[in-house]
Amino acid sequence: MNHVYSRKSGNNEGEDSRSVLPVNKTSAHVVNGIPVSGEDYLLLVRKQARKGPDTLIAKAAPPPPPPAQKLPAAFQALLDSQPAHTAAVLPDAAWQDAFSDAFRVYRDCKQQSRKAAASSVQRMTDQVAFDFCYGEKNELKTVPALMQPVILRLLRLHINWLKDEITHVQALWLFTLLTYLDPVMTAEHTSILRQVARHCIDLRERVYQDDEQLARLNIIITIISRVFGQADLS
Questions:
Q1: What CATH number is attached to the domain comprising 189?
Q2: Any keyword Cytoplasm (predicted)?
């Protein structure tokens, strides 16, 4: 049996009823084809996504083999409610190509104007670094000034910070850190990115198709796999 999935439209023309990464603007400000801010970039990506078909037909995954022994009723209910087959939550290849191309343009534009400077984050304990990212003071705006070792350290720490979910703010931090990460990396640096991607893939395997985390995870996975050359992690 095949499943048909339709995108729902909100009250505003062209807007989804629920935004995974909410923004305060309704139209993207683009200069010479390049979005001028993170919000403009997200709006541009949404516009591209809305050009896709409204209805998708996904082939149902083959049923799993019957268990050798039936679980007790209380546990069988948990088994029956497990997330959909992995193939149903994978992003479309065409979307991945379009998104990664747009991200490269956005990243190159942002990195041209950045001025990195020494930061005390590199010497912070893990807890202080966590407070730097997720404390009361919003430090996201300081990322363009962070040195590459600091960006890599924060990416590595996020492997543990994500735990069992990826929140809206965590997705913004990862997106921003990847925006200002130098694409020329050592094997050790690549290993950090691969760990982040694998963790996001593990989280994606636990979510349902309508989970708001799905888009966040696919964005981070696509950036690492397509933009940073880790194509086997998608």
A1: 1.20.58.1070
A2: yes
